[in-house]
Amino acid sequence: MSRKEHKAKKRANEDEDDIQFKKHKSNGKEQKVRDKKEHKKKKEHKDKKGKNNKKEKKVKRDNSETTDGEQIKSDVEEKTEKSAGNESIKDAPGGYRQSEDLSNIPQADVDIFYKENEVSVEDKLNYNYRPLLSFNHLSLKPEIQSEISKFPKPTPIQAVSWPYLLAGRDVIGVAETGSGKTFAFGVPAINYLVDNRSQKRGVQVLVISPTRELASQIYDNLILLTDKVGLECCCVYGGVPKYEQREQLKKSQVVVATPGRLLDLINENSVDLSQVRYLVLDEADRMLEKGFEEDIKSIVKHTNTTDRQTLMFTATWPKEVRELASTFMRDPVKVSIGDRDELSANKRITQIVEVIEQRQKDRKLLDLLRKYQSGSKKDDKVLIFALYKKEASRVENNLRYHGYDVAAIHGDLSQQQRTQALNDFKMGKSNLLLATDVAARGLDIPNVKTVINLTFPLTVEDYVHRIGRTGRAGQTGTAHTLFTDQEKHLAGALVNVLNGANQPVPEELKKFGTHTKKKEHSAYGAFFKDVDLTKKPKKITFD
Ligand SMILES: Nc1ncnc2c1ncn2[C@@H]1O[C@H](COP(=O)(O)OP(=O)(O)OP(=O)(O)O)[C@@H](O)[C@H]1O
């Protein structure tokens, strides 16, 4: 096997755990610079906000009138006024037309929806579509309409993003964990295919996700739609044989994939992406970070680069990835639900943070399991996060030794073992799952009552995603996090997330301040190399 082939094979099986480990190495310095930038940006943001607040206060105080009596509309009213439906919404290129029912809804109802859900839409082309307050405001293919109408109504991210997506626009969708982002990007994609069935052959919709389990879950969601409209969907990820995937790719119009395996299949000419008209990056900020960025650039170049709709969906949208994201997209509409500019967690999750010594963790974990999974709670599902696979293996053995029937997911296990563990946990065969960050994002496991962060993740974004495995689809949940001085450089950002969700901030955590001190992680030693932070994201040129 040539060096190139060896490298490709290794990458195709590279896993989130391995990528996380690499990422950790380069993390130290970036964190320091990030904190400095964050501090500066926050100061600017505060100054700007101060000015806006004065204006808003003025609007509120004068009951939206200036001193000379002229009516001022708040930003929200201004924005939605134009979309009141009084003007005829131009026929959008993608064929979206605002329904009569929706146009007749009083503007006040639309304003209330925007305010209650803290909706913000940034669209320099000012399409100003109204949010779909009911599935009746949509006219999708009957089979698709019937599948989604099983839910009471669109979630806010679906309600706001669907008109733009059906109109063919690029969209960046940012909404809290567990808020229905999969169908937010999946429904318009499949509807598009049905609308354009006759015109194209081959793979036309491509969804890329950071982990095998999440790719598999997205696939399970999309086949609920594709099976009903006679389309083929397949899922490709590493850790399993390729031959079956090669065969499925030949007849599929929709592909869900992890980057490594997909690139492997591209390089051996087993898949042609030149007809991909609809590209989705799920957990988009993760896909644009180190470890995935180069793979994503390579994949994008193989898609239809002249007439492509590109979507990015995530619960966290750090400033560091926004510039690179914009090089993949054309006039994207940014749809945010909730105050997503600042990193924020799902507010239905009760967040408990405990500062302890590293050596106290094993005992503390047993105490927490007695607290969250005994007596009337003995059947409650609990998800424990370790940081790396070695720690996960050790903790798994320790829990088994103490009589716990624990399932585990981490990079040292075979794909079959990981899939089995996740299914056992989802089906309730085991109500205790131990995972590394391979399970941090996207996994939609019903009724997880408690997330325990045994070791804090590499970034506070990952913390928000981890705890988002509970409190999904409108439910509440609890996250209990053990914090040590190994992670003190993340204390400031964590305090902000806790404050943003009106959660208690322990005094011991405040003592760390916003240190960005270089750290030694006892379990893994000092490991990060200086990175060239002056390097700007490379502009993607479309072939
Ligand atoms: N309109 C809807 N109403 C109610 N529940 C919905 C709706 N759409 C999707 N759901 C359900 O909400 C749950 C969460 O959806 P999904 O996994 O897409 O969330 P997400 O926003 O992608 O979360 P994460 O940020 O963690 O990836 C799923 O069980 C899904 O079936």
UniProtKB/TrEMBL annotation:
Comp. bias (Basic and acidic residues): 27-36, 59-90
GO terms for biological process, alphabetical: rRNA processing
GO molecular-function term, one example from the UniProt record: ATP binding
Biased composition (Basic residues): 1-10, 37-58
Principal location: nucleus
All residue ranges annotated as the Helicase C-terminal domain in the record: 348-513
Protein name: ATP-dependent RNA helicase DBP3
